Amino acid sequence: MPLSISWADVFARLALTVAAGFLVGLNRSEHGHAAGVRTTILVCLAASLSMIQANLLLGTVGKASDSFVVMDLMRLPLGILSGIGFIGAGVILRRGNMVTGITTAATIWLVTVMGLCFGGGQWGLGLATLAIALGVLTGLKPVERHLRRDRRATLIVVASGNGPSEDELISALRGHGFKTISTQVAFLDQGRDRRHQCTVRWRPEPGDVATPPVVVELAHRPGVREVEWVPQIELGEPKTSVSDG
Fold first, then answer.
1. Cβ–Cβ under 8 Å, residues 43 and 115
2. Tens digit of pLDDT for each residue in 86-125?
3. Helix (H) or strand (E) holding 180
4. Among residues 32, 66, 182, 237, which is most buried (max CB within 10 A)?
5. How are beta strands 151-159 and 193-202 bridged, if at all?
């Protein structure tokens, strides 16, 4: 950080800041995320202005013979980073086993640091960070889509006395590649019917959100009154119910 800066330097730093915030925010807006263009520009700009202000105050730093005040210029950017932590925490949501908004929070934190770099005059470091950030946000998205991930769901089967037992349900699920995490059994209508609830885990093909064939197969077994399939991984994924009339 130079001891003194001109208005041309200030303009260049602000221009790079706005450009970096716009490019990162554009990527987020195109994918429908909360931290869009305006958010990333404003966060990046606030961080940049804090460093420009600190840079402008460099000339006033020092302890003169008639003064006992010593300025700590790093308190301003550190305060900015602490404040951004509250914004990042506000966009993280947890619903059941799902946690969303972590990438958005990390993006807000990243553009803050980029703003500090541009505001402090470290243009090369800021531009390198921008290039890497765009590469991660854009280039790795297709890679994530092709990764096979574990998913969880709750399977509820209501069966009569001649319906499949708990062991038979678990065996059918395992035969289709499902791992049973937990099971519960409740007896209905004075023991005439049974309500089986299983939490399962499996690893489908990328992009496969269809109801697994084993669910339809169980619905058509003798003695099965109702089958309910509730995925727990994808937010907003509809609950699927299959009944054997």
1. yes
2. 777 777 766 665 667 777 777 788 888 888 888 878 788 8
3. strand 179-188
4. 237
5. antiparallel
